[in-house]
Amino acid sequence: MNAAATHRTPTIQWLRLGLLVTTLAIGLVAAGLAWYRVAHTLSTAQPVKVPRIRSVSGIVWGGRVFESKASLAAWLHSRGAKYSTWAARYPALARVLETH
């Protein structure tokens, strides 16, 4: 082995070690910044304002919205049906209209 070859090997090893240390340092800084952003976002979080949910006040039937028994009864009558027959078939929907 000549003298030039033995002097290059330690230099290359030091360069590789320097590159490894630099890469690790950059990775740690990037991870630290990411965690800082997460911590900052969590510490400054505000509650979400949810709109108030209103109670059901009507039903959709035949592509229309009915908010009263009278309006649905009139619509059914115009189509040759009776509200009492409809209410017997759909008691849950009839209860919605009778409570308002």
3D structure, described in words:
The chain has 100 residues and is mainly alpha-helical. It folds into 2 domains: 1-47; 59-98, no CATH class. It contains 4 helices and 2 strands. The chain has helices at residues 3-43, 69-78, 83-89, 91-98; strands at 59-61, 64-66. It has a two-stranded antiparallel ribbon. A hairpin with a 2-residue loop joins β1 and β2 (64-66). α3 (83-89) crosses α4 (91-98). The chain is rod-shaped, with a radius of gyration of 38 Å. The N and C termini lie far apart (100 Å). The model has no long low-confidence stretch (mean pLDDT 88).
Structural class, by secondary structure, is mainly alpha
What overall form do the CA principal axes indicate?
rod-shaped
Question: Helix and strand string, N-terminal first?
Answer: HEEHHH
Secondary structure: number of strands = 2
What strand order characterises the main sheet?
1-2
**Count of helical stretches:** 4
